[in-house]
Amino acid sequence: AQTVTQSQPEMSVQEAETVTLSCTYDTSESDYYLFWYKQPPSRQMILVIRQEAYKQQNATENRFSVNFQKAAKSFSLKISDSQLGDAAMYFCAYRSPTYNFNKFYFGSGTKLNVKP
Amino acid sequence: GAGVSQSPSNKVTEKGKDVELRCDPISGHTALYWYRQSLGQGLEFLIYFQGNSAPDKSGLPSDRFSAERTGGSVSTLTIQRTQQEDSAVYLCASSLVPDSYQPQHFGDGTRLSIL
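ok -> structure tokens follow
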């Protein structure tokens, strides 16, 4: 089965600074989908950004961007101009289009603290 | 509503009692997932429903856990003879398939506390 690893249990960033959260995964597939989700204290998981593996261009969504390194099986999330509202748990997720079709695999999460 | 709805938001019950957790997915979403999230932990996959196919129950931790999805819409997760280690937040998500690029949409979860 695919595994997703987030090696940073907790990180801190100063407001307005940039922070990068790491995510690596293990797969033998060539085509797949990657996602970053945010979970604030309110508990609801919110999609932050997503990436298709066959696209070489890194996805961006406003202050959020990814560094997708397919060969290294790495999918890091960069948050620019960090805001207090960015404080949350962040989860990386992998989705296979073939193996266990539509099953999502989540990492253990990174807790992001934003300091004013 | 427009999002995934879960009820109750919070549930406190005594050890040994049965509990039922409800999930109402987004209309038109054929895939439905249940996850368990213990305090400060990641998401633990429990069960997955896709249309009329047999559910993927590979994540259910014991035979005390069961789930059903009636009419391809609302799902109920049942925990029988609850134990203290069942205390967690139970999250439900739905997804529009078969496009694998579609993300999961999550509910607010049910916080289950076993006394």
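The first strand of chain A starts at residue 3 and ends at 5.
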